TrEMBL record:
Residues 223-264 are annotated as: Disordered. This is DUF6594 domain-containing protein. Residues 109-136 form a coiled coil. Residues 251-264 have a biased composition (Polar residues). Keywords: Coiled coil. InterPro entries: DUF6594. Residues 231-250 have a biased composition (Low complexity).
Amino acid sequence: MASVANYATLQQTPASAPRAVANPGNHPTLHNEGYPRLAFFLSQHTRYLHLRRFSALAIRLLLYRQHRLMGMEKDLLHLEDRDAQFDPDFLKNFARIDAEYNTPVIVREKTQGRLYEKLQNELREYEEALLRFNRLAGKGYDAAELRDFQVFLDRNDLLGLDAAIWGSQNDPEGHASDIYQVVDRSSPSTITLEKGNTYADKCAKREKDMRQAHEAHEAASILYHDSSNRPPTQQQQQPTATTSQHQTTPSNHQGVQGASSGCP
């Protein structure tokens, strides 16, 4: 009876206990400064998520696995020579290799069958590591997104070893050389990839930069509500575009208007 009373007491919620918040992942104020707040921000704006691929470490592991495989390859050639000398027909039937598993464990360790088992696992891990490295090696970082992310980081000081991975506003190029944008974004248009120097391309890029800057400040407002402390945006530095007919200077987020500007 006493145990039932104690259980009932434990189930009672004190009046002073805070109410559970529904969907805590939607409330920025629940995430403390530091990595919790950084993780929340990146969860809401995945385009800013840039991480290191640790290329040098990955290559070290690939080289190490390659070394191990070469040693196993050498061992296999040795066992094949040994077994061929014992019985010339041994290497003509894999069933003979499978039958070696019926031998005592101590002897089994020095058989082709046991070595094939090790090779199967080692080679699979090596090939998977190669494919992963190839996928990541083809990805780069988005300079514009990284600059906007640096604005957020300068307001959220990190103290760990990885604090300098993304660079800063004072040193925008000081980021790690092997960072990449984790979440794939839509690819640029074909004309931008092939040419990139036409007036329309430059205009589109300028409009994209202004739009990204605007989105970055909207994202930052999730965690910071005092807009008066925000740094100046790139919208205050808009170049003047010139065509063969006349000159037009954009002054807002709408970009350059009209056919003479060359903007779509």
